[in-house]
Amino acid sequence: MDAEKPSTSVASAAAQDQNVLLDSPQHGPTLSSASSFEALTRHDPNLSRLATKMFQKTEDYITHELNAPLEDYKLLEEMNKATIAKYKDMRQIAENLNVSTSELSLKFQQLAPLMQQIDEISDTVDKLEAAAYKLDAYSIALENRVKCVLQRKSGGQAAQ
Q1: Where is this region: Disordered (predicted)?
Q2: What are the pLDDT tens digits along the chain (160 aa)?
């Protein structure tokens, strides 16, 4: 245990020496050696100029970093406005198509009885055409028979 006491006192002495290096002469202890800046004391003008330049560049950087998302949001807003306009146009087109489809459906319903009559007339014409072909075939056959009978009569008269 006696060996531990001298080492702890050496460690505390080293810590005190380090704290003395980090203490501000006017304001007491500081967090680090970099925070020992005293506002009212005179400083190196070159250091002040470089610090001012650093703060200006930091301000520019932060300003640009904050403006980039702002520009993205503006772009998104304009894209949303364009999309809204497109959807309004598409809605108008869809409404016009709906009206046109309704009108065509009504016209088709009005024409349905007429188309039914046309179909019936077409069926009747088909039947009439078939009857005409049968009548034509029958008249040709009858004509051939009459010619045959006439030839027999004229052939019989010539033989007499």
Answers
A1: 1-37
A2: 444 444 555 555 555 555 544 455 555 555 554 545 566 667 788 988 999 999 999 999 999 999 999 999 999 999 999 999 999 999 999 999 999 999 999 999 999 999 999 999 999 999 999 999 999 999 999 999 999 999 988 876 766 6
What is the model's pTM?
0.43
Q: How far is CA 144 from the centre of its chain?
A: 79
Are residues 16 and 29 in contact, defined by beta-carbon separation less than 8 angstroms?
Answer: no
User: How many structural domains comprise the chain?
Assistant: 1
**Which contiguous run of DSSP H or E holds residue 23?**
strand 23-24
Contacts of residue 30, defined as CB under 8 A and 6 or more positions apart, other chains included, come to 22, 23, 24, 36
Alpha carbon distance 74, 91 (integer Å):
26
Residue 12 lies in a domain: no
Chain centre to alpha carbon of residue 108 = 36
Residue 122 is assigned to a structural domain of this protein: yes
Q: Which domain holds residue 76?
A: 20-159
